[in-house]
Amino acid sequence: MDEFSFPFPPYDIQLCLMREIRDCIEHRKVGIFESPTGTGKSLSVLCSTMTWLEEEEQRIDRDLEQKLRATRRKIEDCDKETEEDWVEVEKKKMVARKEEDEFIEQIEERKRLKDRIEQAKNGVVGVSRKRKTPATKDFKLEDDEDEEPKDELAPSEEYHSDGEARSTRATTSEFSDDDEEEKEKPLKCLKIFYASRTHSQLEQLVEELAKTRFRPRVVTCASRGTLCVNEDVKKLKLNHLINEKCMELRKKESGDGGKKLKTEEGAAKTKKKTCKTTCEFYNCTQIEDVVNGVLANKLTTTLQVTKQGKIQQGCPYFATRKAVPQCQLVLLPYQVLLHDGTRQAWGIDLKDNVVILDEAHNVLSTISSLYSAEISTKSLILALRLIREYIETYKLRLKAKNLLYMKQLESLSNKMLLFLNGQSKEEVMTMAQFARHLNILEMNLFKLATYVEKTDLCKKFHGFYLRMQRNEVKKENEKPKLTGIQKLMAKKEEVNEKEDEKAEERPPPRPVPSPLFSLKSFIDALTNKCEDGRFVVERSPTEAKFRFMLLNPADRLAEVVNSCRATVLVGGTMEPAQLLVETLSRGSIGSDSIRRFSCAHVIDDSQLLAVTVEKTINGKPFQLTYQTRNDDSVLKSLALSIQTLIPHLPNGVVIFLPSYDFLYNFQKKMKEFGVMERIEQKKSVFTESRLPTSDVWERFSRAARSPKGAIFFAVVGGKMSEGINFCDELGRAVIVIGLPYPNKTSVELKERMRFLDAQMPNGGSLLYESLCMHAVNQAIGRAIRHRKDYAAVYLFDERYAKESTRSKFSAWIGDRTQTNLQFGEIIRKTRAFFDGNKATN
C-alpha cells in the first residue's frame, strides 16, 4: 500500500499535491492549490484528506491513552510524596484528577460514538431522541378537549434585549429550534467538510470516493427542495415556498390539530383534515431509520437517501441534518458552508475540522451573492399591510418591548416604500446615506434584527399571512343573504350561472412567499459594516426595488477560515489568485499562514499546442475592443482567418466569444461575407443559446465524433465555458476570440472597483483583470481532460502575447504558449501537431 492509498499508480504531480495538502492540514494553514482538470484533482484531494483523517484519529486515541496514563502516574506520585507542604501536594492532585476526568470523558465520548455507529449498523433506533408529541396521537385526555388551543402566532411574551435574561430562549418553547427537537448534546467526530458549487459536482465526488479503499461515513447536505419526498410540498417547485410549507405542516403537527368532535362523523372529518395538514414523513422513528442507513454507510448519495426516505416514510431532510455530527465526510454546497445563518441552522461546527473549498475561484463571488439582498415595492406593500394587521389583531397582547419593535418594522417598511415611490434620483448609496435618506438613524437595526431572529417572528408572520389568505378566500366564497326579489332574480339566472361555473373553475391562486422573509434578509444586510456594502435603487416601468451589494467578502470568508483547523482552496483554474490572497489578508489572515501550490499538467508538451494569434491572415494586427468589434474590416479579417484554420482542425472545435451580442452579430457578418456557408461545407455548426436548450449538446457531440466534425460557437462565462467536458474528439481545438472583460459601466462593477481602489493600490484594476482571466482560463480548461487527451488552443488577440497577460494564465498553459508567429507558421504548426498525435494515438 502506498503513502496515500491512491487507487492507481500516482503521477509525481499527484504525489506532490497530496503531500502539500497533508502538510497544509497538519500545520493548520490556508492552502491555495491549483490542479488542472484531468490531473486527478478530486482523487488526490480525497486520498490526502482521508489518509490524514485516519492517521489523526489513531493519533488522538493514542495520545489520550498516553495522557491518561501519565496523569494517573502523577496522582500516584502525589500519594507517595512526603513533603511537609501537604496543601501544595493536594493542589497538584486536584489538578491531576481534573485532567484525568477530562481525558476519561473524551475517551468515553469516543466510545459512545463507536457504539452509536454499531447501533446504526444493527438498525437500532435511539430511544433518547424525543420529539414533541404529534397531534394525531390517541392518548389525549378527554378533559383537554375543550381547552382553548394556544395561539402559535401570538407575539412572544418574554423577550429581553441588551443581554437580559439570556436563559429565556432555552426555557421557553416559543424560542425552540426549527426542527422542534429537545436539545441534547450530539455525539461528534473529526470531519472533513467538502464544499462545491453544485450538487452534481458533489455526486461525482461520491463516485470518485468509491474508487478508493476509504469508506468514511459520508452525508450530503441539500435543501428541502432537493430532499423533500412529500409530493404535495414538492409540487410548489420554488425553494422558499417549499420551506414555508414544510414549516407550516410541522407547526400544525405539533399543535392540537383542532377540536375533536365526539360524533363518529365528526371524528372522521377531523382525521381526514389532519392527514392533509400534517407531514406523514416528519416522524421520529422513521427519521432515525434513515439516519441509521447513513451512519452505516448504506446510503451515501442524495438519491439513495431520498429513495430510502420514501420507503421508510422518514423525512430525508431532517435525517440528513441529524446525521451530520457523526459523519466523517460532509459534502455540502457553497451556500450551506459560506453563509453563517445557514451553517447555524444545519448545526455545522467547524472547530478543529478541515474545510475543502472546491472550484474555489468562485468563492468570493459566491459570498458576495449570499450576503446580498433585495426587496421590491410589491413585497414592501404586502409586508406593511401584514405588519399593520398583525399589530391590530394582537394589540392587546403586545407588551411595550414587542410593540416598540413592531412599530419600528412598520416604520422601516413604510419609509423604504415612500423612498422607492418618490422621485429621488439617487442610484447608489452607502449605508450612512441610506440611513439619512430614510431618516432611520435613530433605529438600532442590530437590536431589530436580533428581535426578529430570537422571537421567530418570520414564522409567526408566515402563519398569520396564511391565515389572512384563508380568510380572504373564505370571504370571497361566502354568499350574501338575499332578499325575496333578489332570490327571484337569482333563479332566472341560475341556468346561465351553472354554465359559467364550469367555465370559471379557476386554478388555485399562485402561492406567494411571505414578505417578512425578504424584509428580514434586507434588515440582516443593514447590519453589515457601513463601508462593506452599497445600496442600489433599481427602477423599472412596473416596480422599483432596493438591492444591497456586499463589496467586501473578507470578513465573511475569515469567519470560516478562522473557525476551522485548516482550509484548502482548490480548483482547476485558481490563477490569477492575487485577489483571493489580498482578501484573506484583509480578513486578518497573515501571509505566513497562506500556502500556494500550482500543479503541472499530466500531459507531455507534445499533447498541447498553444499559440497567440496576434495578426490575422491579411497580416494586420488583431485586437478586439469595444471600438473594433463593429468594424466590418476587422470582422471580415477574423472570419477569413477562422475559415482558413478550420480545415486543419479534426473533429470538434469550440470557439469562445466575449458575449452573446457579439456572438450573434459575428455570425450574422460571417453569413454576409459568405464565410459561414464555406465553413458549413467543412463542418457542422452549432451555437450556444441564452435559453436552456435540451438537445444542442447531444447533437454537437454526435457531429463532432463523425468524420466531418463540428464547430460549437459559445460564450466565455456562459453555460458551456464552465463544467462542460469537451474531451477527446469533442474538443480537439479551442479558439478564444478577444479578452472577455466585463462591462465597466455596470453599477455593481464600478462600486466594487472603487471599493478595492480604496483598500489597496490598483485594487479595482486587479479585480477587472481577474474577472477576465479567470473566465479565459476556465474556457481553455474545457479541452484537455485526461492523460491521453490532446488539443490545440488559439488565442486571437495581440494582447495575449504580452507578458503581463500570460502571467495570469494557469501555469500549465502559460509556460507552453507560443507567441509572435505569422499566420502561415501557425497553420504549419497545426498540421504537424495533429499529424504527430494521430500517429501516436
UniProtKB/TrEMBL annotation:
Keywords: ATP-binding, Coiled coil, Helicase, Hydrolase, Iron, Iron-sulfur, Isomerase, Metal-binding, Nucleotide-binding, Nucleus. It is found in: Nucleus. Its main location: nucleus. Gene3D superfamilies: P-loop containing nucleotide triphosphate hydrolases (3.40.50.300). GO terms for biological process: establishment of sister chromatid cohesion; nucleobase-containing compound metabolic process. InterPro entries: ATP-dep_Helicase_C, DinG/Rad3-like, Helic_SF1/SF2_ATP-bd_DinG/Rad3, Helicase-like_DEXD_c2, P-loop_NTPase, RAD3-like_helicase_DEAD, Rad3/Chl1-like. GO terms for cellular component: nucleus. It comes from the Eukaryota. Residues 141-150 have a biased composition (Acidic residues). Residues 1-410 form the Helicase ATP-binding domain. Its EC number is 5.6.2.3. Residues 151-167, 490-508 have a biased composition (Basic and acidic residues). One of its GO terms (molecular function) is metal ion binding. It holds the Pfam family DEAD_2. It catalyses: ATP + H2O = ADP + phosphate + H(+). SMART domains: DEXDc2, HELICc2. NCBIfam families: rad3 (TIGR00604). Belongs to the DEAD box helicase family. DEAH subfamily. DDX11/CHL1 sub-subfamily. This is DNA 5'-3' helicase. The lineage of its organism: Eukaryota, Metazoa, Ecdysozoa, Nematoda, Chromadorea.
